Amino acid sequence: MRPIRILIGMLCLATGVAVGALNPQVVELDLGLAVFHPTLGLALLATLLLGALAGGLATMASIVLPLRRRARTPTPNALDAD
């Protein structure tokens, strides 16, 4: 399993380098309070990373945390077994 994870990580790294190298155009990113001038490749990769983080946090908040809370609370059947 470990070699597969390393291979997937290397493929993602190579894809990120390729996207960054193939998109060297400078873009203007206006966030209201600040203006940034990153390359297009960097802006694309940052957007993908932020989207993945937001999706992971949303999944954790809506699925993982309620399941953990439910697993921690004892059920009435478990109390009767003692």
Molecular structure report:
There is one protein chain. The protein has 82 residues and is mostly helical. Helices cover 72% and strands 5% of the residues. The protein has helices at residues 2-22, 40-72, 76-80; strands at residues 29-30, 35-36. A hairpin with a 4-residue loop joins strand 1 (29-30) and strand 2 (35-36). The mean pLDDT is 86. Residues 22-72 form the Lipopolysaccharide assembly protein A domain. Keywords: Cell membrane, Membrane, Transmembrane, Transmembrane helix.
Explain the layout of strands and helices.
Blueprint: H1 2-22, E1 29-30, E2 35-36, H2 40-72, H3 76-80
Antiparallel strand pairs: 1-2
Helix pairs in contact: 1-2
Summarize, please:
InterPro entries: LapA_dom. This protein is mostly helical and 82 residues long.
